Amino acid sequence: MLVIRLTRTGKTTQESFRIVVAEQKKAVKREYLELLGHYLPTRKPKVLDYNKERILYWISKGAQPTETVASLLKAEGVAEMDKYIFFKSDRKAKPKKGGAEQPSMPTATPAPTAAA
Fold this sequence. Notes:
Blueprint: E1 2-10, E2 15-23, E3 34-40, E4 47-50, H1 52-60, E5 64-65, H2 67-76
Parallel strand pairs: 1-5
Antiparallel strand pairs: 1-2, 2-3, 3-4
């Protein structure tokens, strides 16, 4: 499956990112099919430079943008990025290893004490 994702570049304290199209199983810093843009979060103001036509082309061919890329593009005004952004409440909670949830025990109310 093809994904549009960020690839980190730059120094340790001066990170920058490339927006690339790559095979999902490939290493993040290795091969990619096409460079679509870059994102520089350490600059004031932050810089996001991308080729909108090529991003929409790859999406039409079945590439899925990651959640981070989709939220960056949505902030820039690219349409239809909402379907790629998931919130924590939308994700399915993983069941615990114990199987079904154990019902909670009812709490007993303390008995009244006699004051002398």
